[in-house]
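Appendix C: a fully annotated inverse folding record. The material below is reproduced so that readers can follow the format used throughout the book. The structure is listed first as tokens, followed by the designed sequence.
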């Protein structure tokens, strides 16, 4: 019998190679490989149009974009952020010599809880760095009110939030249009990928210009350097791919939505399995398929994780451990687990099931069957060897 291929938490979507060849031919002919070539300009314009935002600065990845976003607003001292995210969020502060201050998350959205932000503000606080986790919008109104009251900047880590919109005054407004800056990731594992890539969304041309200088070593012309910039430029290859990927992304998001609906229908009555609620006023991008596995589920989160692995399904525990548990952060007063009970519980219960456009319906059913079977008797689906290994 042929070996079954593992099912990973995600699988990058790519356009047909033949569609990409004319783009590559243009790059080969023109010999402009990077430093703001024609594809870079075309991709920025097309992205603004697609996302409904005014200004975009393309980057080599979201981590460098986050580091640069903080630089561009001259953020210093302390930044309030969430422990329930990928490490890059807090690392971007540390790379700027800024202290991250962790604040607990809201139990419904798992995003930074605005009700707890004010208590963490000190004279050193200069900004809030929330994450639209799994693409679920933060409470942007409450966060902005606090930022206005205390004169703080807001930089959204919007790595997961490509294409997410929110209803406001009878129209759909991009979630990337809130706060001072937002940062997207186009990494291979994201809803929209350019292999590696990222972007800063900014409100005005002047800010864009400053960020464009910063991502190009601080150069403003051949002989003038105005800041300690970095090399954060996106290459023509990535930009050309992005331009082509844009043609397909709506169909990919639609298929993801269908997959999410199947999972929800299939798992709605499983004991101990909880889905995150989708805010009624937002258009989601279905970037991740998190479920929270509570005590009523017989196998529990880790039992389910291992049972899935035994079936060659590589679900992931995003985000476990919490950022605040990693060695470089755990000594901070704000990393004390007693101050982060909601984030801790979520990180102990969460598992992200595979979701990507090419995931077959029968695989969704197979994955759901493992979740169901382990809910009522973990030993039924966990092979003996796996049980022993786990117990060792
Ligand atoms: N902020 C937030 C909130 C983020 O989630 C991230 C990144 C960032 C900032 C920083 O963005 P970037 O600087 O990366 O643009 C992955 C990604 O590497 C990371 O981008 C992402 N978040 C994070 C949530 O997930 P890993 O270590 O889990 O990735 P990895 O390599 O284990 O990939 C997961 C699975 O995807 C693999 O098992 C197989 C599949 N895969 C992966 C890659 C890279 C493929 O099929 N093909 C591929 O090329 O971190």
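Designed amino acids, in order:
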């Amino acid at each position: 019998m042929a070996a079954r291929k593992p099912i990973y938490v995600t699988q990058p979507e790519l356009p047909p190679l033949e569609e990409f060849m004319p783009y590559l031919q243009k790059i080969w002919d023109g010999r402009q490989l990077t430093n703001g070539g024609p594809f870079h300009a075309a991709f920025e314009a097309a992205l603004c149009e697609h996302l409904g935002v005014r200004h975009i600065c393309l980057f080599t990845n979201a981590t460098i974009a986050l580091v640069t976003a903080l630089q561009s607003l001259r953020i210093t001292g302390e930044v309030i952020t969430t422990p329930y995210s990928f490490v890059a969020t807090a690392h971007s502060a540390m790379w700027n010599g800024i202290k991250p201050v962790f604040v607990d998350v809201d139990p419904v959205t798992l995003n930074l809880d605005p009700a707890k932000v004010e208590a963490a503000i000190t004279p050193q606080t200069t900004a809030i760095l929330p994450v639209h986790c799994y693409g679920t919008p933060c409470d942007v109104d409450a966060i902005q009110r606090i930022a206005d009251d205390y004169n703080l900047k807001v930089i959204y880590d919007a790595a997961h939030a490509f294409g997410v919109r929110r209803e406001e005054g009878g129209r759909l407004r991009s979630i990337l249009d809130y706060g001072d800056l937002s940062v997207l990731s186009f990494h291979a594992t994201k809803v929209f990928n350019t292999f590696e890539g990222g972007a800063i969304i900014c409100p005005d041309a002047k800010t864009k210009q400053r960020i464009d200088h910063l991502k190009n070593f601080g150069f403003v012309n051949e002989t003038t350097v105005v800041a300690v910039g970095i090399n954060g430029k996106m290459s023509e290859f990535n930009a050309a791919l992005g331009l082509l990927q844009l043609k397909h992304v709506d169909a990919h998001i639609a298929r993801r939505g269908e997959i999410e609906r199947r999972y929800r229908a299939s798992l709605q009555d499983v004991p101990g399995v909880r889905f995150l609620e989708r805010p009624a006023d937002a258009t989601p991008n279905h970037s991740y398929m998190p479920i929270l596995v509570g005590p009523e589920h017989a196998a529990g989160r880790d039992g389910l994780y291992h049972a899935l692995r035994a079936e060659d399904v590589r679900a992931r525990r995003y985000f476990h451990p919490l950022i605040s548990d990693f060695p470089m952060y755990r000594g901070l007063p704000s990393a004390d687990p007693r101050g982060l009970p909601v984030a801790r519980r979520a990180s102990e219960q969460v598992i992200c099931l595979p979701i990507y456009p090419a995931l077959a319906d029968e695989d969704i059913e197979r994955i759901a069957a493992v979740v169901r079977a382990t809910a009522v008797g973990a030993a039924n689906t966990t092979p003996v060897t796996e049980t022993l290994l786990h117990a060792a």
